[in-house]
Amino acid sequence: MARAHQPASRPPNAPPGDAAILEASIATMAEHGYHGTSVRDIALRAGLSPAALYHHFPSKQAVLAMIMERGIEALLARTREALESAGDDPVDRLRALVEVQVLFHLEDQRGTLLGTSELRALEEPVRTPHLAKRHAQQRMFDEVVARGVETGAFRTPLPGEASRAIVVMCTGVASWFSPQGPASREEMVRRYQRLALDMVDAVDPGPWDGDPA
């Protein structure tokens, strides 16, 4: 399994003031949306005055950009690390990708949901380079699935669609998973790995020891 990481919105090296503002921003925007949240709302939740918040971030948009950028940068780094450790087998590589994608989106569910739902609120000049990073994340899935088809490990006639469906599936787990539910995060990884391999019609997906109940 992937190593435990801090949620992307609260990195361990963030200055205390920044970390508190980011945490308060995620909590408030998750409840009210980006446009329904004011700088005053964030400041009050962080235990600061609006004027004090402006010492850390010049605007609410800058806060959102920081949340979005730290999230995608952390996800890209972890995905690349997982692929480097996975070897050449397309099945192992797809398992590694799914593990990272699921665990990442379950570590800070409010933060990752915010990163998805409020993408439309992200403005230039941050928006275009941020979208390019998201596309780079998708391409890692695309390349693994395409390689699996080329080598005969996967038999799907729709590799592009399967790859995008896997990413959407793994990202969406943040919208419904409950730590109090019957399945652990690790069990969700195993289930989604099997679902992903089924989606690409893996010739040899390996043993399945999960409990679908």
Automatic annotation (TrEMBL):
Keywords linked to the UniProt accession: DNA-binding
Keyword Signal among UniProt keywords: no
InterPro entries associated with the record: DNA-bd_HTH_TetR-type_CS, Homeodomain-like_sf, HTH-type_TetR-like_transc_reg, HTH_TetR, KstR2_TetR_C, Tet_transcr_reg_TetR-rel_C_sf
Domain HTH tetR-type: residue ranges: 15-75
Any Pfam family: TetR_N
Alphabetized PROSITE patterns for the sequence: HTH_TETR_1, HTH_TETR_2
The keyword DNA-binding is assigned to this record: yes
Chain residues forming the annotated DNA-binding region: 38-57
SUPFAM superfamilies cross-referenced by the UniProt entry: Homeodomain-like, Tetracyclin repressor-like, C-terminal domain
PANTHER family recorded: HTH-TYPE TRANSCRIPTIONAL REGULATOR RUTR, TRANSCRIPTIONAL REPRESSOR MCE3R
Name the record gives this protein: TetR/AcrR family transcriptional regulator
Organism listed in the record: Pseudonocardia yuanmonensis
